[in-house]
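Hey, can you fold this one?
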Amino acid sequence: MIYGGQAIGQLESGKKAMVWGGLPGETVEIQLTKKKSSYVEGIVIKVLEPSEQRILPRDPESYLSTSPWQIMDFASEQHYKAALIEEAFELHDIVLPQPISVYSDDVEYHYRNKVEFSWYGDTIDGVETLDLAFFRRGSKGKIVVYDSALLPESIMQTAVAIRDKLRELSVDARKLKTLLIRCDSRGNTTWQLYVKDRPCEFADELIKTPLSAQGGEVIYSDPRSPASVITERLTEVGDIVLTDTVLGVPFRYATEGFFQVNLAVYEQALKDMRQWIEPGKSVVDMYSGVGSIGLTIGGDDVTLVEVNEHAVREMRRNIKALGREGQATAVLAASEKALDYIDSEAIIIVDPPRAGLHDDVIAKLLETAPARIVYLSCNPATQARDVAKLATKYGIRHHQAYNFFPRTPHIENLVVLDLV
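Sure. Predicted structure:
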């Protein structure tokens, strides 16, 4: 298995093949999706000689779109994730000081509290159809979705109810962009339907429909952008903000905002991180989202830096609701534009996006040399790169991996760096 989630194999010609849906040791037939001079990419269409690790996927039609590691037993998934972390650090000549372990709460399915559906429409016997869909991996095509093993029942119930109402209203799939749904740990759901036209002639009828959801919105999203960006909020119903507790601390977060999708495993990561936060020391939490790290384990003097205005809006509400105005400071800025907050006397927590730390942040850390950096990453490849750059002054004191996203190749990894 290689970083990104594919299996790497070899064609009869000797050319390398990066393959979705295959496992090490197997002989398979593939459909080519990309040809390069030195390698090809493809998707398995037939397994000729299966691996002993292979199991039947829960979502045989759509697993490649959402969770391509449904095809292996869970022990193998844990093994490959540890191996990929080791390879990422070895690439930068870093030997991790302890054996790599991957924490899991052993919940493999129905853990994901957020999903974004696309839409698919067709004409069958003169009748227009409308279905929820995911994009096919390796192509621009779509696959119709009726269920997903990753999602809680409440999310699928809300999705199906909205689909059925749009069918009743004879809405054309070409008018729709995506459907975003989130749920809290109690199963309450909120939804956002992104549409391509304004005004939207069916918006009022949709929100009048009794749904089991806590709240929802119809949002116009500029069709010139492929992403579901909020151009204009057209109408809403109910309460569109969710609330969850993290280590006993309540947090509000918007449907479109950033919040962890696997709270049970996230709480374990926070407990582990908290052991490395010295009582009485100031803390700077960079890339802080709605503040779920800094406001739970950051102590009584924490600065939270975040670039997303929606997340900062909720963070400030959270600070006020918790009565933490004198203890926690929210800063709306990109981390690389908030370097003055990196203090040599503070413990620095970083939880960057997949691209890793900005070079200016790394330079500032090396310049100010805080005694400890607590680095949680959703991409061990860029984390290893960043740790290598910091290695002139820092050594790895502790590390621990977490399976935030079972049945997918994604890995979360914690590294604690101390001055050497």
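The chain has a mean pLDDT of 95. Let me know if you want another pass with a different chain boundary.
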